[in-house]
Amino acid sequence: MGEYKIKDIEVLTGIKAHTLRIWEKRYEIMVPERTDTQIRTYSDAELSFLLNISLLNKSGYKISKIAKLSTQEINDLVWKIKVSNNLDNSGEKFILALIHLDELLFRDTLGDLIQEVGLENTFTNHLIPFLDRIGVMWLVGSITPAQEHFISNLIRQKIISEIDKLPIPDPSSAPLMLFLPEHEWHEIGLLYYQFLLRNKGLHTVYLGQSLPYESAIDCIRSLKPKAILTSWLTAVEDEFMVKYFEQLKLEVGDKIIYAGGAQVNMKIDLIKSLVTEIKQAKDLTSLF
């Protein structure tokens, strides 16, 4: 069971902390628990309730009216919003889909966004903020591995689906080779790199998750790629990362190694002589 502070609630629901305090005082929306030091804390059920309130408020319902509604009336109105394609409510819908393992809600919300603004804008402006919100839920211990895997796989499936819609580029040119190192299973970022590059008509070879080092070297020798792309999210020792890229650089010679992900971005000072950093995925195609 999660235990959220008011700042966590602000990030997850989009309701400003001072607004929430006013609602609690003026409309008695809810009475949160308090710690011995009088710090407000909220449960998973209260988070879900406030997400519903946020959805209604963003959809034009005044808080004074919402406060007079029964729980069933609120749920009925939220259901109508869930089945609508209002893109302004996508963040709250994503969180509700995560909490309730609601594949239909997540799929339809994501599909509406992609249809309206494309995968690039959806990823940058909607999915990344959503994944940041998931990070808050990890920190307070309110999201399970099953929930994280559920959402990650739905996102992964959708990116693969969008890649499959693209034509396969002309294989006559030297490819860009994409892979994750042997310890790395977080594939969403690398898949998105693949989409961006394929969408620009670039020849890529995608080797996916947890590729053993020797297999990566064999593929480099066989494919002779013009560049290599990888992504590191899982925490590793500094020494391990430096040695990995030092050895890889020796193997690839003058080929450029592009690397992104949280671990690379945090430790770039250690490896900046060995790799070209991918700071933001949306900037990737400008590098080629």
What descriptors fit this protein?
alpha/beta; five-stranded parallel β-sheet; Multidrug-efflux Transporter Regulator, Chain: A, Domain 2; 288 residues; elongated; single chain
Topology:
Blueprint: E1 4-5, H1 6-13, H2 17-27, E2 33-34, E3 40-42, H3 44-58, H4 63-66, H5 71-82, H6 90-100, H7 103-139, H8 145-164, E4 176-178, H9 188-199, E5 204-206, H10 213-223, E6 227-231, H11 238-252, E7 256-260, H12 262-266, H13 268-271, E8 276-277
Parallel strand pairs: 4-5, 4-6, 6-7, 7-8
Antiparallel strand pairs: 1-3, 2-3
Q: Structural class, please?
A: alpha/beta
The top-level CATH class of the largest domain is Mainly Alpha
Helices, by number, come to 13
Report the mean per-residue pLDDT as an integer.
86
Strand content: 5-15%
Form type: elongated
Q: How much helicity do the residues have?
A: 55-70%
CATH topology label of the largest domain: Multidrug-efflux Transporter Regulator, Chain: A, Domain 2
Number of domains: 2
- CATH architecture term of the largest domain: Orthogonal Bundle
Number of beta strands: 8
Radius of gyration: 22 Å
Describe the main β-sheet briefly: 5 strands, parallel
Assembly type of the shown chains?
single chain
Spell out the helices and strands N to C: EHHEEHHHHHHEHEHEHEHHE
Low-confidence stretches: none
Sheet with most strands: strand arrangement:
5-4-6-7-8
Gap between N and C termini, in Å? 46 Å
